[in-house]
Amino acid sequence: MFGKALHRRRHRRWSTAAVAALAMVAALVATVTTGPTSASAATGSAVTSVASGRCLDVAGNKTTDGTGINIYDCDSSKANQAWTFTSAGELRVYDSPKCLDVAHNSTTAGAVVQIWTCNGATNQKWKINSDGTITGVQSGLCLDVVGAKTENSTLVQMWTCNGQNNQQWRTTAGDTQPPTVPGNPRVSNLLCDSVTFAWNASTDNTGVTFYDVYHDGQLMKSVSGTTLSTSLTVVPGVTWGLYVNARDAAGNVSQASSTVPITAPQCQVDTQAPSAPGSLAGTVSGTTVALTWSASTDNIGVKYYDIYRGSTKAGTVTANGTTPPATAFTDSGLTANTTYAYYVVARDAQANTSTHSNTVTVKTGAACGSPVCAVTQIGTDTDIPWGLATLPDGTILYTRRDAHDIVHLNPATGAKTTVGTVPNVDNTDGEGGLTGLAIASSFATDHWLYIMHTSPTDNRIVRIKLENDKLTLSSEQVLLSGILRNKFHDGGRLRFGPDGKLYASTGDAQNGDNAQNRNSLNGKILRLNTDGTVPSDNPFGTYVWSYGHRNPQGLAFDSQGRLWEQEFGNSVMDETNLITKGGNYGWPACEGTSGTCGTAGYIAPKHTYTTADGSCSGIAVVRDVLYVACERGTRMYREVISGTELTNVQIYFNGTYGRLRTVEPAPDGGLWLTTSTTGDKDSIPNNSNEKLFHVALG
């Protein structure tokens, strides 16, 4: 598709100025010159209709104001087909210069398109979008080949955008060199609700157009390429890691700056504790206890309820923005025929804690009568367990993301052995490192481990043999390289399908245009043969199986061989998707069900989660029930697959074990579950305190 447009997102992502400047990111990048020139000199780039393969053309090669626009056979020597996209959002032709212009300032479908002397008017401003459309800033209508015809001399007009290929355009021009990393990020004037963030300028072969400011993988703001500091809104008492990327006019994105951690102070001192929760009551179903209580009050607001089982914290219920925390909690996986005592305390945002509620005592039943039964800790680690695979003998292998090695764990005994360090792995000071791990059904005879990791230059998929409980490093084969990397949005999950093919989830590398570009490996679900070749039945003749993804990390197949995917949103919604061959899942135009997700051609998610309740990474399917492990939400969802929908959604382990990263089927019909509680955004090895569990299912 034509060019690399900026993320066309909701208003919370872009300021008005940034939205008006979306077109700056098109691939039509050239220096605009002034002064007279011959109409036979071609100094811009061709704009080609996807439907016909013919070029956007000034009729008759004329330079007179009011000359119409049509499509015609492409000729690289013709100046009337050489277009330059300027930083002002103009499409210029000739060096006189003349601009692509909507006649009479019309905003009505069917309006005539012409050339006119450039004058800066809104009817001469355009946006080049990542789906290949070109829209008028003034009208929002699409540049359209009349009647969807493909013949020479067919006129071009403005028309309501409809997704047809007579409204899609591409260019052969391109700048592929990203800017350098912004330097010396720093903060000043940190207040309870704002901070000033500054950095040193990046350099680029054509010039930096935008800087994108993030915290922890979430875009906060975009500013112009001449801006080197900006004020940000922050949340009192919350710790964030700020960083910045540079972007040029072609949409190339730099690697991220280093991270600056901040913790905003509280806006006011609060020493008043909430009132005690009241009327705590509990009911038992097998080995599951359901608790309810009455809400506490507070002078500012209750932020958390902590639920204690004896002297052990069994879980935490958290407020979601201005919505107070729920007054119910389910404690699962308990021991049969055992008496438990519970109480609840309330906390506010400044850690003032109430006295505890009344204590309620309950006794579990003789057997598990609920979907989730006993939870057994099978191991601990000082690094982040990320990818996990079960070997034919029932033991497991898992990757340690920041330490770059693979551990063999016997869940029955807790015995651990490091089988080796994967070569050429590099961290990103964020989410990159040693991630995905999978084995094929042929592992018992071929001994291949399939691994996804970040290298110093890219993300890649390799395979290495595991022989005599050691990695045979000399056997390493790089199956697929060139998947763009960045601090965050690196994807990383691997999963073999029932078809014997290897599926991989890749992030957009913090550039949403990658997700819609089918020639890019990023923002995709990829499918490859075990030897790294492209399967002959892939939809586009490439590795791409589906596209339009932001940062997918969970992959799982159900009993019908259908692929489910879990994906991080930006700041509104995370989503679970049922993946369709060749499907477009809408990023960056939409997030979950917000934005333009209802647009024809975008596939809607099967379930969404607020980012506060979600930020889910791994998924597993057992007996056609989907289990979802969530980090920020500190919980596991259980969702029944019914036809093509997810039903009977239940929450387990809400705050019990902290942030959950990976969930995988265990050979006994249960689950393996791992935590990701500390050190998961800094790439520092061995600074975590993580646990691995076995979850028995009813």
What's the layout of helices and strands?
Layout: H1 16-20, E1 48-49, E2 55-58, E3 69-72, E4 83-85, E5 91-93, E6 98-102, E7 113-117, E8 126-128, E9 134-136, E10 142-145, E11 156-159, E12 169-170, E13 183-188, E14 194-200, E15 208-215, E16 218-224, E17 229-233, E18 239-248, E19 260-263, E20 278-285, E21 288-294, E22 302-309, E23 312-318, E24 328-331, E25 339-348, E26 360-363, E27 372-381, E28 385-390, E29 396-400, E30 405-409, E31 416-421, E32 434-438, H2 443-446, E33 448-454, E34 459-467, E35 470-483, E36 494-496, E37 502-506, H3 513-516, E38 524-528, E39 544-547, E40 551-557, E41 563-568, E42 573-579, E43 590-591, E44 594-595, E45 607-610, E46 616-622, E47 625-630, E48 635-642, E49 645-652, E50 660-665, E51 671-675, E52 690-697
Antiparallel strand pairs: 1-12, 2-3, 4-5, 5-6, 6-7, 8-9, 10-11, 13-14, 14-17, 15-16, 15-18, 18-19, 20-21, 21-24, 22-23, 22-25, 25-26, 27-52, 28-29, 29-30, 30-31, 32-33, 33-34, 34-35, 36-37, 37-38, 38-39, 40-41, 41-42, 42-45, 43-44, 46-47, 47-48, 48-49, 50-51, 51-52
Keywords:
globular, disordered N terminus, 52 strands, 698 residues, Trefoil (Acidic Fibroblast Growth Factor, subunit A), four-stranded antiparallel beta sheet, Immunoglobulin-like, 3 helices, mainly beta
